[in-house]
Each structure stands twice: as C-alpha cells, then as structure tokens.
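Shipment paperwork, digital attachment
Item: protein structure file
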Amino acid sequence: MSAPLYVSTRGGADPVPFREALLDGLAPDGGLYVPTHVPALPAGWQSATALADLGGRVLAEWLPEVDRLDALVMDALSFPIPLVPLRGGGWDGVHVLELFHGPTLSFKDVGARTMARLMGAALGGEPVTILAATSGDTGSAVASGFEGVEGVRVVLLYPMGQVSAVQERQLIVERDNVQALAVEGTFDDCQRLVKQAFSEARPAKGRLSSANSINIGRLLPQTLYYLWAGRELAVAGAEGPPAFVVPSGNLGNLTAGTLAMRGGLDVAGFLAAHNANDGFPRFLDGGDPPAGDSVRTLSNAMDVGVPSNLERLRSLFSDDQLRSLVRGEAVTDEETTASMRRVHDETGYLADPHTAVGLEAARRARGRGEAGPMIVLSTAHPAKFPEAVEAAAGVAPEAPERLASLWDAPVSVETIPSTLDALRAHL
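Attachment content:
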C-alpha cells in the first residue's frame, strides 16, 4: 500500500501529501490533518536494537519520499529511552518509560527534534515562522529542536506565571532564531492565538507553520516510543500486551499511541491520566466534549481546558470506540503529591508531578483488579520541578548539567496581552 495522504478533520480541504501537511500545520478549513490510512508496521520491526533503527524502519512506511530518512532519525533520536520496572509495594508489572533523556528533559524532544529535521529537509532554505503555544515543555523542545535550522524563525507563546521556574528559564534563554512571548492569560488563550494567527495573520516573510501537536509532523515520531516500549517489554519476557498510562493534557501523546496501535502494536488499552483539568475523563464517562477554561495545577504542562487533539481522536474513532479503548482518570494536586511520596517510599523511584499523575492512575487500575503489564509514560525529568518533588518525597532531584548551566545564560522575552494584534507585531 502507498504512503497515506492527509485530510482535514473537518472535511473541507483536499487530501495533501505529508510535506504540505507538515509545513502548513493546520488544514485550510481550520481542521487538523489525519492520515487517510495508517501503514502497517514493517516486517521484523521488533528486531531493531536501537530506537533510531526502529524509527527509520517504521517512518519509512509513512514517509518514503524523505531522502536520507535513516540519518535524519539517527540525528534526532540520539538519546536513550529506558523502560524501568518498579519493584515493591504492589508495583510489580508496572514499568516507567522514561522519555526525558533528551536535550530539554521532556518527552517532547522526541517529536520536536524529529519534526525540526523533517521540516528543514522539506523547506530547503525557504523561510518559515514556527508558531508554538506551550504550557511548559513544548516551547523549549521546539526551540532546541529548530536551533540552527536554516530559514526557520520560532515564536513561542507561554502563559505568564503558569510554568515552573526551570521551564521558563528553558523557554527564555536567548537564541538567535527564537522569540519568547509571555502571554497575559492561560494556555488556552495561547492556543487560541495560534489558531487565530493561522486564519487571520501571516508573517512578513515566508510561510507560517506550527510545532504544537496539532502538527502531524510532531505526532508521527511520538508513535515510535510506544513501539520501542512494546519491543522492550517483549524482550524482558512479559506476558500479554501492555496497557499504556498516558499523562494527558492536549491529547497529542495519547493520539500517537492510538496510531501505533492502528499500525499493529498489540495494546491492552489506554489510560488517560489527567490532573484537575478533567474534561476528557468526563467526556469518556459519557459527558460533553471539554469546553471549560483550564485551572492551574502542579502538573502544569497538562493544564489544558480544551484539548486540541480530541478533534483528531474523534476523527480517527467513533465516540463509542474511543470510550471502549480509553479509560480516563482525574488526579488532584493533593493526590499528585501523595503519589510522588508513595512511589518513592515504596520503590525508591523519584517522579515529577506529571509522571506522578500517571502513577496514581496506574495504582487505581491495579486496585480495580486490572492485571497484566502496565507502562506509565514519564514525560519530564523530576529536576524540572525540584520544589514540588522535594516537598513531596523529601529528596531533592539531582539537576543534570544542561539544566544547571541555564541560570548563567542570557535571556530574552517580551510580555504581551492575549490579543491577535499584539501577536501580529511579532510575526
């Protein structure tokens, strides 16, 4: 079967090849791009001995037109993604997939670095402005991923006062091709501005594109670590397919997992672990789609009131299918803190607040009698949230050198109101 084309979730745009979907970000009708079909996993994919090797094989089925794809993926995915088993306290059979060993210590390095290299290859020097809203980790991963890519300028929007000190420092470190904007509003306001800019504003030079998980180029690489986890679990001799516990906000991570499953990964199901922004769990329980404002929590990268990728999930699955495949859990800040403490006390494992939300959801699932292997996606390094982790677990996480050196670097940031006119001045 040939590589997929990409169609809008809203049905008002013609199918386009990957390059156009990647560079445009959003479809002309305002919808999100989804593939016309999901390529089957290549024969022998589980024999890959490294993540980049697996990535080259799998993405070749999606992107046969990309030259030197293997080298591109090798460069992007040059860091480990270990699968760590938990021991003690009833945690046997629960594994943590550590996705935070990339340059910015967040799972978003996987998608952002790969997308940056795909986009650089597709542009061939053509100027582009990358517009990205971030609730904490996306912005720094995008800025790092696109650093030095010819012709690319990055504009980051983040909600002022609503990211951790470490996250903000990662966002505002001075880079030649990056403009950080602190928005007087919420992450939902930042997302709204991005979508308005695509429909109503254009940069003074070149094209406008997105690096949020609304861009299909971010999602496809994220399927790879689900496959890698499945492969690692099989090598370890686990019996039965895993259930994936996904700390969730904008639902891009979960969507990537469902694409991996559609391609042929054997999955027992998904558990979407949310903080107090619980619109998606309520939807899964039969409620209306999320429509409310976000609220601030310890797991701030998941503070999303209206998840963009729900539109994509509802295009890929009927509501009944989605509710059968995915269970939702909502975890309060108090429960998040208790989870960090409990897991450290019982297993010695030190988790950040986002991972702790996933671990609490996994604990509840075990309490309901759900057996079988379970993989909790760990989305950020605990050193990005040192105060919250130490307050909960009584242990200060050790900061990698690349975090410690941030505090001596020059910074550049501007504050803007949450209006399109204010953003337009920076495009």
